[in-house]
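Good day; I would like, with your permission, to put a structural problem before you. The record follows directly beneath this note:
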Amino acid sequence: MTTSAQVRPAAAPASGGSRTPRRAVLFFAFAFAVIADPVSSVAYAIEAALRALHGDLALLIPTMSLVVGLVVVVTANYWQLVRRFPQGGGAAAAAGRAFGPRWTFLPIGALVVDFVLTIGISVSAASSAVIALLPALAPARVPLALVLLLVVAGLTWFGHGGRLLFAVMTVLFVAASVAVLVLGFAAPHAVGSAPASVAPGHGAVIAVVLAFPVAMALATGIEAPSTAIAQLGQLDDTQRRRFGRGTLALLVVIVGGLTLALTVLAVRLHIGVPGADSTQIADIAHTAAGPGWLYGAFQLTSSLLLLAAASSSFQAGPGLLKALAGTMRAPGVLPPVLGRTNRHHTPYWSVVVYLAAAALTIVAAAAQEQRLVLFYAVAVFVSFLVGLVAMARFAAAAGRALPAWVNGLAAAAVAFTLGVNLLRGWPVLSLLATLLVAGGLYARWARAGRPTGIEDVETRAEHEPGGREPEPDGHATAAHGPGGQGTGGQGTGERSV
């Protein structure tokens, strides 16, 4: 999932003595809100891998270990990206300054599609979590998902105020998960009946190679800290780097730790592919804790966290369209109507666009998140790939051989993952949607006279209304391409976006 949660800047501390505690609180709110999206992916990524393995539990641990390893590799790239672009911007800023502004539209198009898929899969997974707790609602799966979608979309009308709850929801889910894990390893309520091994349909190595790309949905949301640091206008570049990198480190520890621990517990308790009205993560919790209050709390916190992830995309997606509509005191490339806001700074017509697209996605998939997960790790991996190649070029131009090789190998791994997912057939639609959105935005940008500053659109999308607007070219180290010259069209007569 590719979103980030808005966190309002804290007031400047009145004295040096209170600065550290306030900054710690700000980091907690920022970090746990931003990682709500990738943490929520744990709810369906493990099951996606097991389904791709045709239920072979014996191969689940190596598959998810490979997934977590690739998550670490991609996160390492964003660690470098945060260092280079401390004012935000993500892969779009990297692509624009490495290869020219026209390449910015590929990661932007990927994000637009990914936001729609994040909303669709998160709401569908939240519906599945509710149905696992209350099976009587199973016949109303699609209406339930659409109602939850309308609720989440409606809450965006009131702006970013409620999004501070994301941090609390993330912590509550992590706490419930830890409780389930402790009980499951120490004194489980029961043991499942799934066989330890089944024929996966291929040799073990081939089965793992074909299965792990599906579970790379776990990697969605990794880019969020690199763009969300644009919200921290009250901090200087050094402090934003620390917040961004600290959040990335926390993301790897929590997401990787929960994923591997739940995977091992699933194998230990013989939890196989779930029935139609349940999920694997629900079956893990039910087997470990029984039908009591802990199971209910686990299902409740997971569903709320998934809705928080959807809400985050309902903020970030329309915010991106608003920035592209040119509401930052300059012309844009999308119709101005998409930038119209209410008194809570919500671009309501952009919200309607995402609401309609997500509703169509949910209905088409019958609100089954495991159908959508096949499309999920495609669009965002286009963004990952562009960002990795851009960072490899920066490193090579600076004469830093080791980072260049690391980024190049990571780009190859991401390209391989993307290719395997595309070979499944239907996920090609996700790539086509990304290319269509990117191509359409590029055409409008060219028709508008190629306005400069498009590389900073993600930074502007994350900008806090009423706060200090980020500088158009970001930090001095980020404002130039490998050759030391800006790539935004300065001096060419192009106008500012």
Notes: The two ends are 27 Å apart (CA to CA). The first helix runs from residue 19 to 34.
